[in-house]
C-alpha cells in the first residue's frame, strides 16, 4: 500500500504511483485504435455498416454503472472490514500487554517480555499467512527458542502462538501469580484475537463470486469496444477523446475493485500490513521500554512482497 498525505486538486491530476492508469494504458490504447478505425470507416466508406447511435449505449451504460457500483461497494466493504479486523488486533494486543504488565504478581520480567514479544509475533505470523509468504525469519527474532521450534512445524502459526499465550496464562495461574479474574481478563482478549484471525481467514478464503466478476468484466470491455462506433456520428474527430474518457472511468473502477477485493494482498491499494505490524510493535515496545529491553528488529519482507510506503514531498 502507498501511504501519502492528501494532495491538492491539481497535483491529484498527475498522480501516477498508486493509480491504476499504468496497467490500463494498453487497454486504453486499444480503445483509441478502435476509435480511429471508427472515424476512418465513417468518413471513407460509402455504406457505413455500423450506425449504432448513442441511445443503446445510454441504456446499457446506466445498467452497467449500477452493477459496477455494487461491485465496488462490495470490494470496499471487504477492504474496510479487513482494516477494522487489524484495528481490533492492535487494540486487544495492547490490552493483553497492559494486563501482562500489571496483573501478575512476582513474575520475572523476562517472562513478561517473552509474552509481549509473542504478541507482536502474532501480527507478523498472521500477515505472512494471509500473503502466503515465509514468516520464519520474522518469528525467529521474536519467539523463545522452544516456541519457535513448535511454530516452525505448524501451518496455522498465529493460532499456535495464541495457544502458547494461553498456556503462559495458565502457568501463571498455577503458580499463584494470577487470580481467577486475571486469567479471565487475559482469556477474554485472547478469544478476541482468535476471532480476528478467523475473520481475516474468512475474508482471504472467500472472494466475491467469480461468475459475477466475469460478467461485469466482459460487459465493460464489450461496451467500451463498441462505444466508438456509437459516438462517431455525433462526435466526429472527437470520438477518441470521449471514448477514452468513458473507457477510463469504467475500466479504472473495475480494476480498483479487483485490487481491493483482497485487502491483504500486496498491490499498491491493499492494506499496509507490514506498517500496521510495525505500529503495533512500537506500542508494545513503548509499554515495556527500559534499560534492559531489546527492541525487536524490523520486519523482513516476504518473498514477492511489494508493499511500499511513499510520502509525497
Helix and strand layout, with pairings?
Layout: H1 9-12, H2 21-44, H3 55-102, H4 109-131, H5 136-140, H6 145-152, H7 157-175, H8 180-205, H9 210-235, H10 239-260, H11 273-288
Helix and strand content put the structural class at mainly alpha
Number of helical segments?
11
Average pLDDT level: 85
Percentage beta strand: under 5%
Helix content: over 70%
Count the domains: 1
Gyration radius over CA? 27 Å
How far is the N terminus from the C terminus?
Answer: 17 Å
Provide the low-confidence segments as ranges.
Answer: 302-313
Q: Largest sheet, described in full?
A: none
Order of helices and strands: HHHHHHHHHHH
DSSP summary, beta strand count: 0
Question: Can you tell me the overall shape?
Answer: elongated
Describe the structure using short key phrases.
313 residues; mainly alpha
Characterise the protein shown here.
The chain is mainly alpha-helical. The chain has one domain (23-44, 51-288). 71% of the residues lie in helices and 0% in strands. The chain contains eleven helices and no strands. It has helices spanning 9-12, 21-44, 55-102, 109-131, 136-140, 145-152, 157-175, 180-205, 210-235, 239-260, 273-288. The two termini are 17 Å apart. The model is unreliable at 302-313 (pLDDT under 50).
